[in-house]
Write a structure and sequence with these properties.
217 residues, alpha/beta, Purple Acid Phosphatase, chain A, domain 2, 5-stranded mixed sheet, 7 helices, phosphatase activity, Ap4A_hydrolase
């Protein structure tokens, strides 16, 4: 059996991330790990989170790291240091100040470039992985960056998602992870005192998760 593991929003919580990686590597000897974004902001050590994820996996594991809205905000804040984007990121409670504190000042240029280069979506035979969501009325090719990074689903909403299962984070709840029809939300509010969650998928079986791995914050 081959597995895909999807990890929810981390937000600077390095200890739960390290324990989650250990749990996944104990679960299987190889596989694919999809991170759905929001590595930075609000939590205590965004720098260490990016250091760990950029370092990558051990062989034969494969990691796919998507962009979240918080990475997008961070990159925009540094694109023009005097812009409104920086004021929003630093001063509005989004968590940019905590991120800069973890660096002892400015975010490293190589970390900004890595964040800027992240893809917005990943899909395989049976699943679609995004940070926030999709609009099923439009094709995958016509999804907007804003929806992929910022969309929020009303409770209980699901669709057919082009015959695939949708996996996302972005909308935190202490009751997550939750599968609703053809959609699984894996943002369990780790940075808000919840847990870091991972959905486990069998690569040969269509549909939702076969298991969840959860690590307390």
């Amino acid at each position: 059996m081959r597995y895909t593991f999807a990890i929810g929003d981390i937000h600077g919580c390095i200890d739960p991330l390290n324990r989650m990686i250990d749990r996944i590597e104990a679960y299987a000897s190889e596989g694919t790990v999809v991170f759905v974004g929001d590595y930075v902001d609000r939590g205590p050590d965004s720098k260490s989170v990016l250091d760990r994820i950029i370092a990558g996996p051990s062989d034969p594991w494969r990691w796919i790291c998507l962009k979240g809205n918080h990475e997008d905000l961070m990159v925009a804040a540094y694109a023009d240091i005097n812009s409104d984007s920086r004021d929003v990121w630093i001063g509005s409670g989004i968590g940019g100040l905590e991120t800069e504190m973890s660096y002892g000042g400015r975010v490293l240029p190589q970390h900004l470039q890595w964040a800027a280069d992240r893809p917005l979506m990943h899909f395989d035979r049976y699943r679609i992985f995004v940070h926030a969501g999709v609009v099923p009325e439009f094709s995958l090719e016509r999804q907007t960056k804003h929806d992929l990074l910022w969309l929020r689903f009303p409770p209980g909403e699901s669709s057919d998602y082009w015959g695939k299962h949708l996996v996302h984070g972005h909308t935190p709840s202490l009751s997550n992870p939750v599968t609703t029809g053809n959609r699984t939300n894996i943002d369990s509010g780790c940075v808000f005192g919840g847990k870091l969650s991972c959905a486990v998928f069998d690569d040969e079986i269509a549909g939702g998760p076969i298991d969840f791995i959860e690590v307390k914050a």
